[in-house]
Structure formats: structure tokens, C-alpha cells
UniProtKB/TrEMBL annotation:
Keywords: Coiled coil, Ion transport, Magnesium, Transport
Stretches of the chain forming a coiled coil according to its record: 223-250
Topology term for the membrane: Multi-pass membrane protein
UniProt source species: Gossypium darwinii (Darwin's cotton)
Alphabetized Pfam families for the sequence: MRS2-like
GO MF annotation terms: magnesium ion transmembrane transporter activity
Localization, UniProt: Membrane
Protein family membership: Belongs to the CorA metal ion transporter (MIT) (TC 1.A.35.5) family.
Ranges annotated as spanning the membrane: none
Function: Magnesium transporter that may mediate the influx of magnesium.
The keyword Magnesium appears for this protein: yes
Protein name: Magnesium transporter
Amino acid sequence: MADLKERLLPPKPQSAINIRDASYRPSASGRQPFQGMDLSGLKKRGQGLRSWIRVDTSGNSQIIEVDKFTMMRRCDLPARDLRLLDPLFVYPSTILGREKAIVVNLEQIRCIITADEVLLLNSLDSYVLQYVVELQRRLTSGVGEVWQSEGPELNRRRSSRGFDNVYGSTSPDYLPFEFRALEVALEAACTFLDSQAAELEIEAYPLLDELTSKISTLNLERVRRLKSRLVALTRRVQKVRDEIEQLMDDDGDMAEMYLTEKKSRMESSFYGDQSLVGFRSNDGLSASAPVSPVASPPELRRLEKSLSIARSRHESMRSSESATENIEELEMLLEAYFVLIDSTLNKLTSLKEYIDDTEDFINIQLGAIVV
């Protein structure tokens, strides 16, 4: 029967060989296919666990390993926001205010700020470590020390707006936790960019003066590279400046970043709902099972409706009043670092103008030599 089947049926093509049979056939080296491969580790590598540095409101830090989807649920963030923090990609500087978090991508500082913690991608970068150390210092130190380190101009603005009278000069909680973490990130980014601009100035002006005295191919090449670095740094500084300016111009985005206030409102609303459930259970109704609107007494339904309307009006009035009053805190914070980054941009603009003037001078000299 087998011989008859082989004579009648055409030969099986090589591509139709059963993969399962081929997997057990030894290779030329005598080893079984997939031998020595850790197939159980493929799932672990696919989970995408990453190491994060967590700093809480008390200044305590720890290293945690969390995958992407857990972090999305933990901070209530979409996947596109987490991509901004990916060190494998280069994204422009961004500050995003979300429902429960602030996503910060400022130069080397890439972190997620919530009302209770700051999460940074674990890195050996010195700027990341300095950010953690500085944040811990400010969370555990008094407000007077922080204000003295920020300069007399910012102190004058805060005192003129009445911050000392409202919050007191000895309280370390003059700003919510999320704004204190954001301030350290802004300071780190602005200081880093300003130091790079200063280094470029120190290198540029002697080189340009040397080019005016001696026009050579080497000096021209050095100036060309210098100008390329200047253009790249100017773009980065301009992006940080535009991001801060955009936040200052949008009151809605600034109000969205008050995470501690939103959290307290949600908790008070939750406790209000719990008290309403307790009132219903004390009135003889079951708190565990849902109450049918048809079976509920009309007096109780009217009471629940009136309480809900009153609570929603109170919450909306309080949120609008707090938004108009407290936005000034964040606006002042952004204004201080906007002035700093704008000063850095002015340095770079002046340097570019000096380079353009030097190029014009060299063109005039070369034109005179040709004539």
C-alpha cells in the first residue's frame, strides 16, 4: 500500500516539509535546532522592565523596576508620553501637564512628577544624580535657604506678591511638591544650557579675533564648526524658552498642573460620597446593593439630587477660585526661569551677530585683495 501511494502521488516539495519534523533533525554541526537558547527569557525581555529612581515627598529615594504598562497605569499616562522619556530617542524639550502627572523632558532630566513622587529613569548621568540630590536637599531643608540661593530679584518678586505673608517665611511648603520638583528640573536645564553657552563664548571670541588677523583654511574650518555648534545650541535654548512661554500664556495648562490640589479635591469628593452612602444606610437602606429609582422614596431622591447639585456647584466654584488665585504661584516660578533662559538666548544671539560681522569683515578684506 505504501509503495502504491509513492508511485501514484507526486513527490512532496521541499518547502512543504513539516516544520515540526525539521526541528528535530540535527544540523550539520550535530546540534539540535534552538539548542542552548533560553526561550523562557524571551518573555522577560519582552516585558520591557526598566529601572527608575523614585523620590517621595519626604526626600526618600529608592530604585524600582517597572515595565511600561505598569507605569502607564500608575501615572495614568498614554504610551506616547512615555516615549518622550525614552533615552533611545531624541525629542525636543517638553513639559506636559496631565490629569495625574507632569511629564518633563528637559535636556538630561527626563522624569514623571506626581503629587506623591518623582520617577526618573535610572542613569549614571551626573546631571540626573545632581537632580536627585538637589531635590532631596530642598525637600528636607527650610524655605529660607532655598530663597537665598535663588537670588535677590526672585525674593523681591515673591515678597512684593505677599508670599511671605500668606505662607510664612519658615514653612517649607510654600509650593506644592510637584512645583518644587519642577523647579529643580527647570533650574538644572537652564543652568546646563547657560554653562554651555558660556563655554562657547570663551572659545568663540578669541578664535574669531584670530581669524580676522590671519585668514587661513584651518581658522575658517574651526569657525565653521563653531557656528554649527552655535546653531544647534540655539535651537535647544529656543525650545526650552518657547515651552516655558507657552505654559505662561495658557492658564488652563497651568491649572492642570496643580496635582496636589486636584488630588485633595478628589479625596474630599470621595469622602462626601461615602458620607452620603452612610446617610442612606443609616436611613434604613442597604448601602451594598444599588437602590432602584422606582423603589426609592421621592423625598430621598430629591435630597440626593439637591446634595449632588450643591456639591458640584461648590466644587466648581472652589476650583475656579483656587485656579485664579493659585496660578500666580506657577506663573511666578515659570517667569523666573523664563528670564534666565532668555538671558542665555541673548548671549547666543550676540555671539551669532559677532560671527556675522566677522564674516562681513573677512569678505571685505578678500574683496579688496582681489581688486
